[in-house]
Amino acid sequence: MNPLSDHLKENMDILFVGFNPSIRSAETGHHYANPNNRFWKILYEACITPRKYKSEEDYKLLDLGYGLTNIVARPTKAANEITKEEYKEGREKLKKKIEFYKPKIVCFVGKRVYLEFSGKRDVHWGLQDEPIVPGTIDFVAPSSSGLVRMKMAEVINIYKKLTDLLSSIQSAVEHGKGDR
Q: What are the boundaries of the signal sequence (predicted)?
């Protein structure tokens, strides 16, 4: 299977980081393509996107200032198939992407994605106290997988905080209080 292409540009507002591509995503060449994945629904219902996008439109998120990547490139049926070596290699590659593209916010789509990236043992939902890569803001959101047992309303409320955070950053920049 071919690796899934990242959708990245410099100075994005938000970079969404998932675990790795599903088999379905690898087959279609688009992020979050599994019909059981709720990523596109969550973004729309949390007011992050103006409409519900389809996975085939994943590249259009760049027009909104959002990018897509994964901590591990190899497609699997489940995240528990990812090896420690793959996470280690992925961590280094992701750090370089963040340093190069300089997104304002890095949203980790899944607590374990952030735990693997940060090396921390425990984190809370939402804004993190210290970014792993200086100059960005780390935000931890629930995985959009259909396997997540959280209520959809709770998941959406966490993602809505991402919208509020981005608005406050943009407001600070407009009023000359931000450095971005």
A: none
